[in-house]
Amino acid sequence: MTDLEEASGPPPSIKHSQRYVYIWLLQVVIVLISSSVVVWLVLIPKSPIYIITNVHIPALHGRNSTSHVHLSTSNGMNSTSHLIGNISIHLNLEFSNPNKKMGIYYNYIYIILYYSDAHIGSKSLPGFYQGYKNTTTYEVIVNANKQFLKGITDGTTGLRVCLESAVKYKIFKSKTKGHQIYSEAYVPVGSNGRMLGEKNIKLHHMPKQTKN
């Protein structure tokens, strides 16, 4: 009876064929999983990179203190009581798309400047589309109020540059849902109105904060 049962089983060649089929299926599954992971990693969008390349305040060029930032009166005498109502701050910004195969739609860009935690000025930029591995430059002029002007001394002052934006990523022919991004950086500025230290300051992504 035992001999008959052994004789009725599949021959060794068939067993080997089935083993090869199982190994092949396992390899296919592994390749598919690996490919899915790679595609998933490639399709994870990377946030845009914001860099401040330069900051300068033209009204302070060549001046040593706020006592020199004034207008002349009609009789030729200078007076600090005639301080400029608004003072322009020039920002040079770079917007970089680090993604390899994704474009970025900027719905809006809102720039806010703070001095000693006080809001001193803001500027909005129109939305635009940016291709992958691309960099867009902007020169932004923000009019700061008197509060900033009065706070400038002979020493170093500093600005907190905050940037809010809403972006969508273009993957092939489709768009992702909107992503809110809030970034900020501290920029030291000398009494001559020029940016101090390194010239390329990266804005770091931060949790959304309450505006002052």
In words, what does this structure look like?
With 212 residues, the protein is an alpha+beta fold. The chain is built from 3 helices and 12 strands. The strands form 3 sheets. Strands 5, 6, 8, 9, 10 and 12 form a 6-stranded antiparallel beta sheet that branches. The longest helix is centred in the first third of the chain and has 31 residues. It starts with a helix and ends in a 7-residue tail after the last strand.
What's the structural blueprint in terms of helices and strands?
Elements: H1 2-8, H2 12-42, E1 49-56, E2 71-72, E3 78-79, E4 87-96, E5 102-115, E6 118-130, E7 135-144, H3 146-151, E8 157-171, E9 174-175, E10 179-189, E11 201-202, E12 204-205
Antiparallel strand pairs: 1-4, 1-11, 2-3, 4-7, 5-6, 5-8, 8-9, 8-10, 10-12
- The helix content, as a percent range, equals 10-25%
- The whole-number mean of residue pLDDT values reads 77
Radius of gyration (Å)? 31 Å
Span of the ends, CA to CA:
92 Å
Low-confidence stretches: 64-84
The secondary-structure class comes to alpha+beta
Distinct helical segment count: 3
Give the percentage of residues in beta strands: 35-45%
